[in-house]
Write a structure and sequence with these properties.
Structural class: alpha+beta
Low-confidence stretches: 142-150, 152-166
Strand content: 35-45%
Order of helices and strands: HHEEHEEEEEEH
Oligomer: single chain
Number of strands: 8
Largest sheet: 6 strands, mixed
Mean pLDDT: 87
Length: 166
């Protein structure tokens, strides 16, 4: 296991434990974060604030890992963030009051490290799925479902068998 994997695992454990100090110590002072729901995060404190916002809103939070990857100075985690929405979830558009609903949100984190600290953390998840599962919007795909691969005339079923454009 390399340094990137160790730091990613340490960050995940700190988030689930609500350990602000461990999070602050895992990120470089000038660490950058990108999320689907907030402006760019800058600095260890901003990273800790963002991550702990989820555990405040979902105090019983857990992470179900489906895959862990590491290549050089980068670690990638794929899985599901799971919890019950019993606390206020802060969002750039305003606070989301507790809904009491259970969330199982598919997500992916990409972490880059340098000199023993996380310097970049990118978070990927479907905001519509999050809002749908919390009962704040509706979706044709239904809450909690994992979308199936897209099929249709615009997507060939096998590589090399598509007809040329007309």
């Amino acid at each position: 296991m390399g340094q990137a994997r160790e730091i990613m695992d340490r960050i995940t454990a700190a988030v689930m434990a609500g350990d602000r100090e461990a999070l602050r110590q895992s990120y470089a002072p000038d660490a950058e974060g990108e999320t689907p729901d907030a402006p760019r995060l800058s600095g260890a404190e901003a990273m800790a604030d963002y991550l702990l916002g989820f555990t405040r809103a979902f105090p019983d939070a857990s992470f179900e890992s489906t895959a862990k990857h590491e290549a050089g100075n980068t670690a990638i985690d794929e899985g599901y963030f799971v919890g019950t929405h019993t606390g206020v979830l802060s969002a750039p558009e305003g606070d989301i009051e507790p809904t009491g609903r259970t969330l199982r949100l598919r997500e992916c984190d990409v972490l880059t490290v340098a000199n023993g600290l996380a310097v970049a953390h990118r978070f990927y998840y479907d905001q519509l799925d999050l809002l749908t599962q919390l009962g704040l919007t509706s979706s044709d795909t239904g809450a909690g479902t994992v979308p199936q691969p897209r099929a249709g005339a615009d997507r060939p079923s096998q590589v090399g068998t598509a007809e040329p454009p007309r």
